[in-house]
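lol so apparently i was supposed to do this last week
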Amino acid sequence: MAHPNLNYLRPGSLPHMYCPGCGVGQILNCLIYAVKELDLDMNKVVTIGGVGCTSRIPAYFNTDAIHGIHGRNLAFATGVKLANPELSVLVIMGDGDCAAIGGNHLIQAARRNLDVTVIVNNNMNYGMTGGQVSPTTPTGATTTTTSRGNIEKPFDLCKLVEAAGGTFISRWTTAHIPQLINSIKRGIMHRGFSFIEVVAQCPTQFGRYALGLRDPVENLRWLRENSVTKTQAEKMSEEELRGKIIVGDFVEKDEPTLVEQYEVILKKAQLIQR
Ligand code: SF4
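anyway here it is w/ iron/sulfur cluster bound
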């Protein structure tokens, strides 16, 4: 018997390219459950990826899709949303795609409150190209380009997007599947810039070098044991929070979106009737 979610995968796309135990598969699975539970019209969903293991998701997820260029996902998403505001636009990125090459697109899209849903797989390194240091690699972590430990501070992506103007912001890990599905659903239904960070395992390039964890299950256990909810975090000191992943839904607010504001000026100029 075929898997009940098989029709959400692009015909002919399997086998996939991911390493055994990679977190990207879990993120794709959560995305499928979210759109299925929302009963979205899949003819009105567009998925946009850039370059990297995570940005390959649009090749497997059976929607109209753009597999674009590195870091430019949100530029494509802006064009798609302005051209057809009725579409649900899902942007899938890795941490390098999102916060390094695409960092300026990220803050500008958040500032504009572009009505799209961004899902970022933060596996703390550039997995596809060999495990190099990324803007979210923890300080001190050993990667292929920081063999004596990373001397830089990592971005807190959720705080970055909040400061830039994002209006729905969550963080979970791949050890928090029901919570992640719920936040993706809420992000898709939210009017405005939705940002969902997923701290995930890259057992091949990061887990075994930076954390000394060879088994994907050990990676998941590490994510679970090092996570604290935002409610727990409020009662913890800065010292106790060092190295912890704070998870939860952080921001949800109602503000005019880019398209709504654009339509106001078009109406004033009598260029549209709506
Ligand atoms: S390199 Fe890392 S992120 Fe890429 S497929 Fe392998 S485990 Fe996944």
